Amino acid sequence: MIESVILKNEKKIIFLVLDGLGDIPDRRFSGKTPLQAAKKPNIDQLSREYGIIGRMIPVEIGITPGSGPGHLSLFGYDASSYEIGRGVLEALGLDMELEDGDVAVRANFCTKKDGIVLDRRAGRLRSEETERICAMISERIREIDGVRIIIKPGKSHRFVVVFRGEGLSDKLTDGDPHKDGLPYVYPEPKDEGALFTAKIAKEFLFKAHEVISSETVANGILLRGFSMKPKIPPFQERYGMGACAIATFPMYRGISKILGMDVVGNPETYEQMVELLKLNFNKYQFFFLHVKETDIAGEDGDFEAKKEVIERVDKLVPEIWGLGPDVLVITGDHSTPCALRGHSWHPVPVLIVNRLGETDSLPFDERNCIVGSIGTIYGRNLINLALALSAKLDKYGA
Amino acid sequence: MIESVILKNEKKIIFLVLDGLGDIPDRRFSGKTPLQAAKKPNIDQLSREYGIIGRMIPVEIGITPGSGPGHLSLFGYDASSYEIGRGVLEALGLDMELEDGDVAVRANFCTKKDGIVLDRRAGRLRSEETERICAMISERIREIDGVRIIIKPGKSHRFVVVFRGEGLSDKLTDGDPHKDGLPYVYPEPKDEGALFTAKIAKEFLFKAHEVISSETVANGILLRGFSMKPKIPPFQERYGMGACAIATFPMYRGISKILGMDVVGNPETYEQMVELLKLNFNKYQFFFLHVKETDIAGEDGDFEAKKEVIERVDKLVPEIWGLGPDVLVITGDHSTPCALRGHSWHPVPVLIVNRLGETDSLPFDERNCIVGSIGTIYGRNLINLALALSAKLDKYGA
Q: DSSP code of A263?
């Protein structure tokens, strides 16, 4: 429906996404959420004067989304129709270019003995070690049966393998027992079409294990999330907006690339992100700014840290709103409650700052969002409101 | 699902629809909506004593519906499955009877020179001029290749052409550049089946342009929204209720006819509408009363006028409820916020007065509706609640 009513104009929409923003009241902290506890005068003033608030269900009620579905929903896609596999996500996160037909897989260095995986993360191997060992493997294994093997180290024990060649499939089971102390397993084909790829993957593992057999820090490789680049209708065409993504973490730059957004810069601080936003403000109509640290704090169960990230972001908000966007959405891609130390299914608070004069006159937090005028909506519908509030949607039907 | 659980009984449901009722807080009026500002003691008393309240999304979050989709939803139809085209809607708005197979199209008088459309509305031609020129054309062009040409003038520069004959199609592009200063275009067939209709439409335009060639106020005709009466499952069969529509504006009588409701009378005042309701109260189970003026006030950005319409309607409510319906729904087909001077995507406040003893004990306005027990629902589901509250729905499943 949305595609049939898109109007193009120069109005600007900014999505300021605090990863894992949503939380639940925490008894250890007088029953508040980090968003309630944070001193965020700028966000609250904007919310009171120009904000409407509410909540969104990222994917489905009770369902905890990964980063892929979380962001797909945020950008208006039905997350159940498009899957971004883990391998692809990680590859893009390492700035690897994926071609159509490539199969990407997330890899861990591990330690194993007598066929049992001892430590799936090889003691969270130092990144330098991972780089060194990856270089060794790359050097020795460049191709198997006409399939190119492309390896790139990530942080700590993580790396990515991309298989590039004809006739590959991603229908493979994980080569990973998913728990320490269990037998090592090889990836297996899920269907006939994946027999060749399974053979290549196993041969890669045999050879790579050979290469690292004398290493002391890590002597095994786990592979999970075999996947190919999904075919997703490009964001810029779908909504008739030039879209600019700004993120410190590679994975979110990767997701943006899959959606066909332009990823600008390689910022390391929030200040650099705002700088990039300013530099590109006239060139695009849509901006995605991704802040990772709220999610990290949530995963660490660190209430104070999550609160402080929100406070740091609050200081940037006047400059962002000051650029003059028509719509500024502040939300998360999912909730990561400190008490749960992980992603959760909880609705995510949403603030839409707009220039229509419409406001709920309330500060922005989980509790107020329950009674906000946006109501509780599905994540995939959020962008409709941003588009409507920036006059980018025509009337539907006569 | 609904069709499978319909129970017939004599209980009465009234839908009192205030077109464009929903609004947003308006800063010029101490941050209230017209519904909040209006003195409506009768509605509020009913709401407090017998009312449950909530909000409905007419078609989809962020989507601004036209009158067609707005009313389809209100009557429980999925607006994305049935389209009432512009030509049909305008024809109905002028009280033209449409037969199966007719193709209706909205027409504008315009000015053009050397093949360029100068003014798509011919300076918003006076209605008298449009009537005069339409009469001339009707007089001279009655039929083309066995297809009857029926012309009816509307307001200002607007009129409607209905093509009546065998083998017609509505799969034609608009004969309208949609912007001043662009070349005049003729309607073209979208597929093979529309070749004949396109030939007729073009010939009509050639001849009509000939007829008006010496006119100074308008010398061209634009056609858009070729459409045929859609095939929609009749309301009375679908819900097992005799349905009676009462409306002052032709377009809404027209939509009711398309849904197979009985349209009674030709009322000009609210009092006449109530009179018709009384007269027909024993003959039907469902009543649709349409009040247009809230929408007009919204489109005019006239807060005071919108408030006053609500106050006038409030005075009628005791008499309507006094007739003894089991369910009285007061709502709109969409929002028309004064601040936006047009239809919008905003949720529409809903009040369901019922005799079940269920009440939210709250006055009826946009803000209370956010926290009402109905919640925020899709428009197409509203009728389910009215049916349920009048014992017209059986248990679903064993």
A: E
